[in-house]
Amino acid sequence: MMLSEFRQSLNQVESLVIELPTGKLVAPHAHVTEVGKITRNFVDCGGVVRTTEAINVQLWEATDYDHRLDPAKLEKILEKTAEMLGLPDGEIEVEYQGHTVEKYGLEFTGKHFKLTPTYTDCLAKSACTTPAASVVKPVVSSLPIVQSSCKPGSGCC
Question: What pTM did the predictor assign?
Fold first, then answer.
């Protein structure tokens, strides 16, 4: 979802409801602790220099249970931040504290917002030696991560 779409969607709801990919809702007393522009400069595995930009919104659940961030207040925060930082109409990414800091995409269902999983990918597939069949998107789960052994040359690492 682009920043402009997010801001327009905030005008269509009376309360800020955000659903995690698991179906659980983000606590209604969550705070938006940061809004900013994230620029990544990196070299992919094919040796190509790349730059990406996204608008970052960080959600944090504190013990301030009486706090409620309403859509109008969040819109004002986004407007002020856009002015202060000169934000482009970029793609929104949301950081949320789960098992670790988790990064999500964002979509609007027409009634509430939904955090969507993000995935890693090889950006240099033409230069990559990893078989395409071994590239699998993980299933979102609340189960702990289990380490597995991986032998060099097996295609799993």
Answer: 0.78
